[in-house]
Amino acid sequence: MTQITKLNFKTVERVGATKDPVLDRRNKLVAALDEQKLVLTAKLKGETYAKEHAKWMTNQQATACK
Questions:
Q1: What pLDDT score does 46 carry?
Q2: What's the CA gap between 29 and 36, in Å, rounded?
Q3: What integer pLDDT is reported at residue 66 of this predicted model?
Q4: pLDDT tens digits for 2-14?
Q5: Which is more confident, 45 or 58?
Q6: In this predicted structure, what is the pLDDT of residue 37?
Q7: What are phi and psi for residue 57, nearest 5 degrees?
Q8: pLDDT value at position 65?
Q9: Where would you tag: which of 36, 42, 59, 60 has the fewest CB atoms within 10 A of its CB?
Q10: CA distances from 2 to 6, 7, 9, 10 (A)
């Protein structure tokens, strides 16, 4: 028990605690508009646009892969 008494505790400032929810929604909206802009430019060029999405899966050897 003497080990526990030697510990020093301090408060830690959380990084995400001071985030502004209005800025989060604004950034999400801007990202969605950028995505729509990419879709429109691909459509005007006659190309198809596919959004890339990274997804973690487990393969047959039970190891994680991207």
A1: 95
A2: 11
A3: 56
A4: 788 888 888 887 7
A5: 45
A6: 96
A7: -135, 165
A8: 59
A9: 60
A10: 7, 9, 15, 19
Q: How far is 51 from 39, CA to CA, in rounded Å?
A: 9
Of 43, 40, 66, 38, which Cα lies nearest the Cα of 53?
66
Contact 26, 19 (CB under 8 A): no
CA gap 24, 31 in Å, rounded: 11
Tokens of 62: 């039970």
* 49 contacts 37 by C-beta, under 8 angstroms: no
Chain Cα centroid distance, residue 62: 25
pTM, to two decimals: 0.54
Q: Where are the beta strands (DSSP E) in the chain?
A: 57-58, 64-65
Mean pLDDT, the chain, whole residue set: 84
For tokens 């508009």, name the residue: 33
Beta bridge partners of 65: 57
